[in-house]
Amino acid sequence: MFPDNFLRKNILVFLSAILISCASTEEAGNVDKATAHYQIGLSYYNEDKIQMAYIEFQKAIEFNPKNKDVFNLIGIIHLLNFEDYQKAMDFFKKAIKIDPKFSEAHNNLGRAYEKMGRFNDAIDAYKKAASNTMYERPEKAYNNLGRLYYRLGRYDEAIAGYSDALRRVNDFYPAYYGLALCYNAKGYYGDAATAINRAIELDPLYKGDREKAVEDLEGKKIIASEEEQKDISNFLEILRY
Length: 241
Description:
mainly alpha, 12 helices, elongated
């Protein structure tokens, strides 16, 4: 017969193995449930059912609080749909805490900072996003840098940001619109005209149709914010060159 202490030790090892197995099975089940809620949430979001999407993403977090993508998506809803920039910032930071190299969340955090008027923080966040060589969409962060620098009247830095975006994706048409505004502000009217013509050529909404672009911009100007109205007025002015 085996000694009692030997049996006790082996029983403990056996029980530990069972507990670990159960824990692993439960964790895997939670991840599966989280994934299901995440996918349902995405479907709702794509259908513009924002509140339903928000609920599903919250459920996904309950089952898997380590999913950085869900935190990022909830942040996006607070940023774009609820316009609650503080909460958006909080969720983007939670995503970054899970993965400090999560460039998409850094980029979105920069947008939240920008909306809150924290421009230096926004610039830092955009730069962190763009500096990650593994970021699949660095042109977005560079374009955001360009736009923010333009708003601050730092036109040369804005041009550098837009140019960096185009170096990554040479048909990224939003950057051409930004360049048009910058060149116009600096009095480089020929360059501004070239940039906006290139933007209209690449923009899938216009496909090179200048008349359609003018008509559309004039319509958008009526309902645009004050800041956007100024941009649209400048676009229309450039198109008359």
